[in-house]
Design a protein that fits this description.
Layout lengths: L1 H8 L6 H21 L6 H8 L3 H4 L1 H24 L2 H18 L5 H15 L6 H8 L5 H53 L22 H29 L7 H5 L5 H18 L1 H19 L4 H33 L3 H53 L9
GO molecular function, one term: transmembrane transporter activity
Family: Belongs to the major facilitator superfamily.
Keywords: Cell membrane, Membrane, Transmembrane, Transmembrane helix, Transport
Length: 402
């Protein structure tokens, strides 16, 4: 009887399957972001190991995010036919396998190729996670469940950078990359064991892609928010690695990696913003998150290390508040508009990772030309565009689930 109710309305907090679902997707999100950005704290070391420039070293991040973005265009629509659960399971497992191979890459170009393949393999999880949550979780808990998943990605982003930085001090970038891969393997095992099979998925074999996901003005604004917000966010952290490893701070990879502890505020920011969005509405919460990110970037312009860390913390909390609410808004808006939720989520994440690749990669150029002032300027402009898009969303005609 309990399972029948869950099948009809979706899982509620307190249901055993809701707990399994939450743990599995938290682990999946953790693995995805830990593996995706694992080379970020290693950029200065990659410069020395492969004799490349700072802007070239950023390609180790950009190739993975670009491969992920391209694959999302296929993974999301394919999930409308093939289903959600198996795609997510295989995605995390394959990603971990490519991560292990990356630790043994003999040349720079081999490493970039493996990072690209790693990004492609990753696509199966983020492409469908939000659509899966919308289908399997009770509608009253959508924003909360989405916030928990994004919180997992925030913890993953922190853990991946912390572990990579610490292991790099112990045994170099190869040892660090292999260690992160082991974390991915463990998370993949959790996903395979705990993730509940889909109960409410309805295949759509005749609608692999619909142009309607590109015609709704609210969805288009959300795609723009994804690209600009994450582009600024990745640019700041790419630049921060070089700033903290240089004069006057001279921090090792492990010491600089401790700065990523501020990702805990990102996890809290995402979960808190999700709860506030359920209460006050998404249109009210997203612009506030944008203002917080801008304040954080401004604080990082100060020279003292504590203020730099504070600025990164404020920006991180604001970014995950924006991303946590916006990413959950996409499937809700798509469902209310009669558009495939998997397709809309894929377009959001394609924009997200394209922005990460392009704008995040430009941080190396900005650093080479104007150091931190250039990086902060790039991020400030991008976050300002995010704010404008968020404000425009307030004027878009609403539908049932906005």
């Amino acid at each position: 009887m309990h399972q029948s109710v869950a099948h009809q309305t979706g899982y509620l907090p307190g249901d055993p399957e809701y707990r399994k679902l939450s743990i599995a997707l938290f682990a999946a999100g953790l693995a995805t972001f830990a593996l995706l950005y694992s080379t970020q704290p290693l950029l200065p070391e990659l410069v020395d190991a492969f004799h490349v420039s700072p802007s070239q070293s950023a390609f180790s991040v950009s190739f993975a995010t670009f491969g992920l973005g391209l694959a999302l265009l296929v993974a999301g629509p394919a999930s409308e036919v093939l289903g959600r659960t198996s795609l997510m399971r295989w995605s995390v497992a394959a990603t971990s396998g490519f991560a292990l191979l990356s630790a043994f890459a003999p040349t720079w170009h081999t490493l970039l190729a493996l990072r690209g393949l790693q990004g492609i393999a990753m696509a199966g999880l983020p492409a469908v996670a939000m659509a899966y949550l919308r289908e399997e979780v009770h509608h009253d808990s959508h924003a909360k469940a989405s916030g928990l998943y994004i919180a997992g990605t925030a913890v993953g982003g922190m853990a991946g950078r912390l572990i990579a930085g610490g292991l790099s001090d112990l045994g170099g970038w190869r040892f660090a990359t292999g260690g992160i891969a082991v974390v991915g393997v463990l998370c993949a095992a959790v996903v395979w064991l705990l993730l509940p099979a889909s109960r409410n998925f309805q295949p759509k074999p005749r609608a692999l892609f619909s142009g309607r996901v590109l015609r709704d003005p609210a969805l288009l604004a959300l795609y723009g928010i994804a690209a600009t917000a994450v582009g600024a966010f990745v640019a700041v952290y790419n630049g921060a690695v070089f700033r903290l490893s240089g004069s006057p701070y001279e921090l090792s990879a492990g010491a600089a990696g401790l700065v990523f502890c501020v990702y805990l505020l990102g996890s809290a920011g995402s979960a808190t913003a999700g709860a506030l969005a359920d209460r006050y509405g998404r249109r009210a919460v997203v612009p506030i998150g944008c203002l917080i990110t801008l304040a954080g970037v401004a604080i990082t312009l100060a020279a003292p290390l504590p203020l730099i860390v504070l600025g990164l913390a404020v920006m991180t909390a604001g970014f995950f508040a924006v991303h946590g609410v916006a990413s959950g808004w996409v499937p809700a808006r798509a469902h209310a508009s009669g558009v495939g939720t998997g397709q809309a989520s894929s377009m959001y994440l394609f924009s997200f990772y394209l922005g990460s690749s392009v704008f995040g990669g430009l941080a190396g150029t900005a650093w080479s030309r104007a150091e931190w002032t250039g990086v902060a300027g790039e991020a400030g402009v991008l976050f300002a565009v995010t704010l404008v898009l968020a404000l425009l969303l307030r004027n878009v005609p609403s539908k049932v689930q906005n």
